Structure formats: structure tokens, C-alpha cells
Amino acid sequence: MINNAAIMNEARWELMIDINVKSLIWGTEMAASHMRKDKGGRGGRIINIISALGLTTNFPSPIYSATKHAVRAYTSSLAQEPTLPQQGIEYALIAPDIVDTPLIRALDNSRMHHHDQLKDFIRDKQMEPHIVAEGLLQLLHLDNINGAVLSVEKERKTFRHVENVDDGPTFDPSKSAAGYV
Ligand SMILES: NC(=O)C1=CN([C@@H]2O[C@H](COP(=O)(O)OP(=O)(O)OC[C@H]3O[C@@H](n4cnc5c(N)ncnc54)[C@H](O)[C@@H]3O)[C@@H](O)[C@H]2O)C=CC1
Ligand SMILES: CCCCC/C=C\C=C\C(=O)C/C=C\C/C=C\CCCC(=O)O
Question: Broadest EC class (predicted)?
């Protein structure tokens, strides 16, 4: 199950918290209750989409960033639950850099502060959505993804364990199935 829906709109920040955080928690809780092996389900994986802005801080979109940090903390905490092996559930995060989607195309200074000054930065950094999809497929091929954080940038994909997202070593998923640390 992938929780992907979100908005980026600093002017409608309460709605943004509702969608980006509260709805994601509802989705996660509902999915887990159906998937849990210890409750009659078949187990499974729940992948929550954050952002590079869920791993760092910035001035143009403080509330959007806060929603993504909240999801990171929530998912990271769930991944530490000691009964996960009995539940048969794994939790992971994907943190894309800027992606060329309607979310980006709708941005202006009401949705993100200083957007005018950041247009060139966004244009240079943004990647096509298929790069994120490729990262998702690489993640899904790993044996155990619980606690994994996949950062997707235009030129590289980086797998880390959620406890090490700030400075942890990375690994090449083509060489190791469970090697993220
Ligand atoms: N586009 C970007 O640069 C980046 C996007 N992300 C994240 O990737 C995810 C997907 O974003 P994009 O595809 O870029 O945005 P998008 O605006 O193209 O797609 C977002 C989707 O969420 C859905 N959605 C929004 N509010 C909803 C609601 N109340 N109920 C049901 N569905 C709702 C929309 O219908 C839409 O299909 C989001 O979590 C976003 O924060 C992360 C990093 C960068
Ligand atoms: C600096 C803010 C740029 C905002 C770009 C617009 C939309 C971003 C949507 C996201 O979800 C965020 C994706 C990427 C953020 C870009 C840069 C983060 C810098 C991270 C770092 O410190 O290296």
C-alpha cells in the first residue's frame, strides 16, 4: 500500500495538514488493520511518500516540510514496533527531490514563498516521474524494506535506514538485498 496523495499549499496550511498528515495516518492505520497477519490478514508493505523536504528544512515551504517531517517520524516510529514480525508488516519511506508533476506546475507565491526567485532552481533540479517509479521498483525488490528510506534525485538513488537518514552510509541495491544500514 502506498500513501502518495499530498498537496503543497502554504496558504491553505490547515487543509495541507489534514491531507498530508491526517489522511496518511488514516490510510496507514486502515491498511495495516486489513494486512496484519495476527489479525487474519496476509501481511504486506506500507510505503509512505515524503520528500527531500522531509529530510531537511527550508524557508519557502515551512508547513509542507513540517507535514513531511511528521510523516517521517510517524513511519519511522511504526517501523520500530517490536511485534512487526508477527504482524507481517514492513514500513518504508520514499523521499523524492523535485518531480515534474501538476503539484510543481501549480506552484506560485501563494503556495510556496519566494516561488518567483526559485523558478530556475526548480527547473534545473526537477526530474521526470518515471525516475521515482524506478526507485520504487528497486525498493520492492529488496528482501526486507522495514525502516528503509529511499531518496530519489535526478542523478542518483540512495537507500538508507531511517535511523541514519542524516549522515548514514548508503548501499548499492544491485549488490545487496538487505544491506541498507
Ligand atoms: N512533485 C514534487 O516535486 C514532489 C512530490 N512529492 C510528493 O509526491 C507525492 C505525489 O505528488 P505529485 O504527484 O507531485 O503531486 P500531484 O498534485 O501531481 O498529485 C497528488 C495526487 O494527490 C491527490 N490528492 C490530493 N488531495 C487529495 C485528497 N484530499 N483526496 C484524495 N486525493 C488527493 C491528487 O488528486 C493527485 O492525484 C506527494 O506526497 C508529494 O508531496 C515529494 C517530493 C517532490
Ligand atoms: C528549496 C525549496 C524548493 C521547493 C521546490 C518545490 C517543490 C518541492 C516539492 C518537494 O516535495 C520537495 C522536493 C525537493 C526539495 C528540493 C530541495 C531540497 C534541498 C535538500 C537539501 O538540503 O539538499
Answer: oxidoreductase
